[in-house]
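Lecture notes, unit on binding sites. The following record was shown on slide 14. It pairs a sequence with nicotinamide-adenine-dinucleotide.
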Amino acid sequence: MVKICCIGAGYVGGPTMAVIAYKCPDIEVAVVDISVPRISAWNSDQLPIYEPGLDDVVKHCRCKNLFFSTDVEKHVFEADIVFVSVNTPTKTRGLGAGKAADLTYWESAARMIADVSKSDKIVVEKSTVPVKTAEAIEKILTHNSKGINYQILSNPEFLAEGTAIQDLFNPDRVLIGGRETPEGYKAVKALKDVYSHWVPEDRILTTNLWSAELSKLAANAFLAQRISSVNAMSALCEATGADVSQVAYAVGTDSRIGPKFLNASVGFGGSCFQKDILNLVYICECNGLPEVAEYWKQVIKINDYQKSRFVNRIVSSMFNTVANKKVAILGFAFKKDTGDTRETPAIDVCQGLLGDKAQLSIYDPQPMSPTTKKKVHCVWDAYEATKDAHAVCILTEWDEFKKLDFQRIYDNMQKPAFVFDGRNVVDANKLREIGFIVYSIGKPLDA
Ligand code: NAD
């Protein structure tokens, strides 16, 4: 039986390994982590992350061929293939601070693999890493190899939070990069054999290591760029009376452009887009390409601008001050169907409003982390959040917000009652009929 171990039981390691175990009953999968609470949660009925469909997949194979453990060394020792899916945040100090990826966790995982291994291993980069990381990992492993053969593969993950299980069951592509040597090809084939259990052959792409590593950064940069492009247009729409949804529809029907990922919003968030673009910027700078770095920086600049533009719109619409006014925040996660609030635009919007002394009452369908709860007032119900409020700000596109009884909300709010829709989820005209003053991103403004 092939044995797989994944170091890192987070948003990527947990779901990806659960799906491998589900689809490959002949493979034993161990997901390991240094975090005791995280592993306990994976072994309980309250999984540490919320993803539609994840519970069923985990329950189906847990303790059969899927195991969650803190005994990192034992499972690495036993594995034929070791995935590394640890966090790779932006460095906060030292060389490259604020841009470069912090590979501390990765390096310590690699050193641990070298320490405990007694048999040949395929080591798979699942985390998003800078291009050429495999070269560094190879150095660490081979200099400590004790005669063991390591093959490093890059197999970046393209799942999107909120649709992770769907994406993993039916991926657009699986990308595997390896060394172009006989051993490298053999390792690529071994990983291909795992995915071939359910992914059609033509969706498994193989490339050299550096192309695979760079493709992940490139894909996230392109996705974020699309959001910043439509958001930049949304500002122009508001200034001219054009409607960004109509413009996006007209633009997206061009088959060269396509309709997806063209929704204007308060801005992108999540733990990946900004971090990966900063990483790309740093790599460009290190490779003597400042013009290319500048190009990608603009994607983040527009995203920051969109968030501050939204806050300014709220404050200016509410007679230039939100001091001591109750503002209901509906949605805190960075997108719907996830409990993940890392780098969510809601943080910047809330900070902006708090800076003007607003009183915030926050509701998100997913429970907020204890740290967030300490800083802001969180409630368990949209109606409670909006009671006596002067304004409602929608910051996440949760489906349940579309179904709210806005007449009831209006009746219980201070007047004039404002709605600031940062995701264009509500029917602005219906809300106007009720009596709300409505601002929707990129749409013609109320008179
Ligand atoms: P995460 O923070 O949720 O999980 C990482 C886990 O690794 C943590 O639980 C941490 O305790 C564990 N860890 C760190 N060092 C360890 C060690 N030495 N031994 C054992 N465990 C260790 O992160 P994530 O969101 O799952 O992201 C992981 C990687 O995947 C990142 O590089 C990220 O950029 C990339 N990625 C994330 C997404 C996403 O949607 N979250 C999508 C694609 C790729």
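Take-home: The two ends are 68 Å apart (CA to CA).
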